[in-house]
Amino acid sequence: MGALFTIRSDGRGEKQLTHTARNVTDDQPDWSPDASLIAFTRCAPNAPCAIYTVKPDGSQLKRLSPKACLPGPPGCEDGANASFLPDGRHFVYTRATGGERHFANWDQIEHSDIVVRDVAGGNPRVLISSKPYAGDYNSPQFSPDGSKIVYVRANSPLSKPSLERALFVADAKGRGSRRITPWSLNGGDNPNWAPNGKLIVRSHEENEGGAQSEIYVVRPDGRGLHPLTHFKRGTEVLSYSFSPDGKWITFAKTGTAGLPDVFVMRPNGKNIRPVTHSKFWDTRLGTHALTKPGTMARAKPRFKRRSCCAGAIPAASTSAF
Asked: How far apart are the first and last CA of the chain?
């Protein structure tokens, strides 16, 4: 199982918000601008993922995705990677539909779209659509002024460069997409806007020595790309976000005994300190530490998330978007 928790930025006051059935995971939380709601993704084995919201006290759990149906695409959509628009009345997410093609160590969904809905779950509007089986359009997020949208394009074996990831930015209507990070960075996993309009992104590599990640910052026009961190080899960064005042970056990385923990640091990469010292996570997947003033929401998964639909990943991989 995997559930959502909140915790104060000093590491105290942890509170569980959601309670899931066996082998169901709640992940990818995002605070609404007024901190009245948390949007997140709920996934169950052999079923499509769906978008939900919950109040910060754990009340008023609500499904925003269309009515559940099995076995998922192509019969119905798989939704993930939700984040609120600045108006607080809409959210944007990745919608996966259509059939699947099977490659060596890779299952690719037919259609990956970036879609906006209202917070009641209605009025879907497609901003960006992939070509059939070309890849996944993950982790969409609007800029603080609502004028731009950033997303991660993860190429399938049919696209070039094959199985690489990069950040793209488009206008608020999904037009004029342009790549802002090099394919060689393999950047992805929920890029996040700073209040001043800059972006942070994770680089990631897998080799014979294991996983290695760093946190980078880049402007939305692609300039100024540089690393904020220089972690020791074998460190995997799982997620990250700016605090609302822009004075801190919250992130998750492998911590105590190699298990994932939540940390904070200054926007220049200095003053890194842990917020949690978890004993319970037996996986390094899917930790998302999102902040409102003084409080963080995080997911505590306890099993490997499947490679399905929204954000397909190599079947042999242990990374999750």
From this structure: 18
Concatenated DSSP letters of 255-266: -GGG-EEEEEE-
Cα dihedral across residues 250, 243, 180, 143: positive or negative: positive
Q: Determine the residue type at 13.
A: G
* pTM for the whole structure: 0.84
In angstroms, rounded to a whole number, what is the distance separating the alpha carbons of residues 166 and 151? 9
Which of the 8 DSSP states describes residue 273? Answer: E
In degrees rounded to 5, what are phi and psi of residue 60?
55, 50
Q: How does pLDDT run across 39-95, given as a tens digit for each residue?
A: 999 998 888 899 999 999 999 999 999 887 766 666 688 999 999 999 999 999 999
Name the DSSP class of 167: E
Q: How much of the chain is in helix, strand and coil states, percent to nearest 5?
A: 0, 45, 50
Q: Domains, the chain, ranges and CATH?
A: 2-301 (2.120.10.30)
d(CA 205, CA 15): 33
The token duo for 316 is 């042999």
CA distance 125 to 245: 30
Cα–Cα distance measured from residue 56 to residue 135, given in angstroms and rounded to the nearest whole number: 34
CA-CA-CA-CA torsion sign (235, 240, 243, 247): positive
φ and ψ at residue 251, rounded to 5 degrees: -150, 160
